[in-house]
Specification:
mainly alpha, two-stranded antiparallel ribbon, 2 strands, 73% helix, 7% strand, rod-shaped
Length: 106
């Protein structure tokens, strides 16, 4: 479902800067999840508890894995969007009849 939505977004005029911000925020959320899981593991060690994760922790781990999956898909879409934009910019431009340049920079 997410892949379809991403494909639809890349076909429209999506702002790569806004997309980049969204991907960065998602990375930050994933980092916080991992820090929290590290914190829980450290507390478990300090309390000398050898039991496995609780049901709440397992639910959080599953949610974090889904979040990371969404991140990977969004990062992939962002890369595709960036390449599409770069190819569009690099298309030859006709400056006068029969005279083309490879980009607007030249």
């Amino acid at each position: 479902r997410i892949r379809i939505e991403i494909n639809r977004c890349t076909e429209t005029k999506l702002n790569p800067k806004g997309f980049d911000f969204l991907v960065d925020e998602l990375v930050l959320a994933c980092q916080f999840c991992h820090r929290y899981f590290d914190f829980l593991a450290e507390k478990r060690e300090k309390l000398s508890r050898t039991e496995s994760e609780s049901e709440v922790e397992l639910t959080l781990i599953k949610a974090a894995q889904r979040l990371e999956g969404v991140y990977v898909q969004l990062e992939d879409a962002y890369c595709l969007l960036s390449v599409k934009k770069a190819l569009t910019i690099a298309e030859p431009i006709e400056v006068s009849n029969g005279i083309f340049i490879s980009s607007a920079v030249e």
